[in-house]
Write a structure and sequence with these properties.
Elements: E1 2-6, H1 10-19, E2 23-24, H2 29-34, E3 46-50, E4 56-61, H3 63-73, E5 80-84, E6 92-100, E7 104-108, E8 146-150, E9 163-170, E10 181-183, E11 187-189, E12 193-197, E13 202-204, H4 209-219, E14 230-234, H5 243-264, E15 272-275, E16 279-285, H6 287-298, H7 307-313, H8 317-327, H9 336-343, E17 350-356, E18 362-374, E19 378-384, E20 390-391, E21 396-397, E22 403-409, E23 414-420, E24 426-434, E25 438-439, E26 443-456, E27 461-464, H10 466-475, H11 480-496
Parallel strand pairs: 1-2, 1-3, 13-14, 17-26
Antiparallel strand pairs: 3-4, 4-16, 5-16, 6-7, 6-9, 6-15, 7-8, 9-10, 11-12, 12-14, 17-18, 18-19, 19-22, 20-21, 22-23, 23-24, 24-26, 25-26, 26-27
Helix pairs in contact: 1-6
Length: about 500
């Protein structure tokens, strides 16, 4: 497997791929400096890129290579989770416009392979008033896959009910609010080379004009014939690649263009995927996984404790982390107190509760105020609850004046929420079992593991939702080692409460 790797996890994942006997190509200059290894400018089978929110990576490319990379990266840590994208990059769909917005249209793609939907658990997240009021998750929740088509990318005027033939040009991880980005211009990506339908000639993405002109002239010498009606676009790295790599990339793009032409020439049934030349997977790294990646990176270069945890939390922190590592070999424990003091959250801040689901979705449980920040790792968050309904599993009514106090501790596999009424009387305690908590500046983040423990107002302790965890294991959304850890944590909580 030949992989191109980009983003904040690049050093650690390059080490992982090389150790597993794979080849890393088109490496950035910092990566080349750090590794005493052959990192050629060849074509790639799979691209591994950090997601925009830095919570994980997207894996895109040849289906077999994506499957192999997903298996390898999925073993980074016990709290690493992976999902197959229902709308892979490069796939062509017959879709239907379901909504028009200010800048574009929402397109129901249909016929995708969404993650298994999961009902909200029987804790505070099950009440709609706890949600933050944003749009619901875009992928997998209703058994259909949606995309977003900007009006500038549409060939014709579109309105609700129209049928459109579109291609996915940029995917969206299942935990993200964004929909996959669509276009009505079709591309065949071969790695270093991309063919664009309806264009002519050869263009090169480079600041080196002489190298670009040379590559344009060399294109006619390559063995692969460009199909009629397609233009060639070379990537920036193509000017440094060998003739063999260029030819390989162009051949792959040509084959994908042929598959797209064949799909576009078919009538189809009006909905669903027509062709998917490549595959896409999304991998989310939990806290333990980030620290495991720290260890791999530390084998290559100076790496401070919590390197990936800090960079994932705040883009502005990256320069500070790089500065520290350039000065010395940082040792010790993850400096939670220093990091939160500089970037948050601190007392008085508002933070969201990012309740991840094992199927990849993210449910935001509203925002609360930080009442307390312990430099040792504890964040206490207070929320005012909306009346109506009951607290599931606790069985008590939600009333006006109810308050929830939740104490999150960085790195812990559970967190408790105590509910009190307007007079301060305890209505019950809900202890959520989850992947290790991360207290980011604007959001507390984890993935819920279904099984939970509750303590009723009368002192009765009850364990709930084991059946949901069993179902997730059966469906493959929770790996067995992670499920075993969740059950172990729940058992310990039962005994402690």
């Amino acid at each position: 497997m030949r992989a191109r790797v980009r983003g904040i996890y690049a050093t650690a994942l390059t080490r992982l791929l090389l150790d597993a006997g794979h080849e890393v190509v088109q490496a950035s200059e910092p990566i080349r400096r750090r590794f005493d290894a052959d990192l050629p400018d060849g074509n790639h089978d799979v691209a591994v890129d950090a997601t925009r929110d830095r919570q994980g990576v997207g894996v895109e490319g040849e289906p077999d290579a994506v499957a192999a990379a997903t298996t390898l990266l999925g073993d980074v840590g016990v709290d690493t989770l992976a999902w197959k994208a229902p709308a892979p990059t490069g796939a062509v769909f017959d879709g239907r416009v379901t909504e028009t917005l200010g800048g574009g249209a929402v397109v129901e793609l249909g016929g995708g392979d969404p993650p298994r939907p999961a009902e909200l658990d029987g804790d505070e997240s099950s009440h709609p008033d706890d949600l933050d009021g944003d749009d619901p998750p875009r992928s997998g929740e209703f058994g259909e896959t949606e995309g977003y088509l900007p009006y500038d990318s549409a060939t014709d005027y579109v309105e609700e009910g129209d049928s459109v033939r579109v291609q996915v040009v940029e995917g969206a991880p299942p935990w993200d609010d964004d929909r996959p980005l669509l276009d009505t211009e079709f591309r065949a990506d071969g790695g270093l080379a991309t063919l664009v339908r309806g264009h002519e000639g050869v263009t090169v993405r480079t600041d080196d004009d002489p190298a670009g002109r040379e590559l344009v002239g060399m294109t006619d010498l390559l063995d692969a014939d460009v199909p009629d009606g397609w233009g060639v676009r070379w990537s920036r790295g193509a000017t440094e690649a060998s003739m063999g790599a260029l030819s390989d990339s162009l051949e792959r793009a040509r084959d994908r263009a042929g598959a797209i032409d064949a799909a576009l020439g078919s009538e189809g049934d009006g909905s669903g995927v027509l062709v998917a030349p490549s595959a896409t997977a999304w991998i989310w790294f939990g806290r333990e996984s980030r620290f495991s990646l720290d260890e791999r990176r530390r084998r290559v270069t100076a790496t401070m404790p919590g390197h990936h945890r800090i960079k994932a939390a705040d883009r502005a922190a990256s320069a500070g982390v790089d500065f520290v590592e350039a000065l010395c070999e940082p040792e010790g424990d993850f400096p939670f107190g220093v990091v939160t003091e500089q970037f948050g959250p601190v007392e008085g801040d508002a933070v969201r509760i990012g309740h991840g689901k094992p199927d990849g979705r993210l449910v935001v449980l509203g925002a609360g105020e930080v009442l307390e920040r312990d430099p040792g790792g504890t964040i206490a968050v207070r929320r005012e609850m909306s009346p109506g309904g009951t607290y599931d599993a606790l069985g008590t009514e939600r009333e006006a004046g109810d308050v929830a106090l939740t104490k999150f501790r960085e790195g812990r596999w559970w967190y408790p929420t105590v509910y009190r009424d307007d007079d301060g009387n305890r209505k019950g305690t809900y202890v959520n079992v989850c992947t290790p908590v991360e207290c980011f500046p604007d959001e507390i983040r984890y993935v819920d593991l279904h099984v939970d423990v509750v303590k009723h107002a009368d002192g009765t302790v009850e364990r709930v939702d084991d059946d949901e965890l069993d179902a997730s294991v059966e469906a493959g959304t929770v790996p067995k080692p992670l499920a075993e850890k969740a059950r172990s944590v729940a058992s310990a909580l039962e005994r402690a409460l």
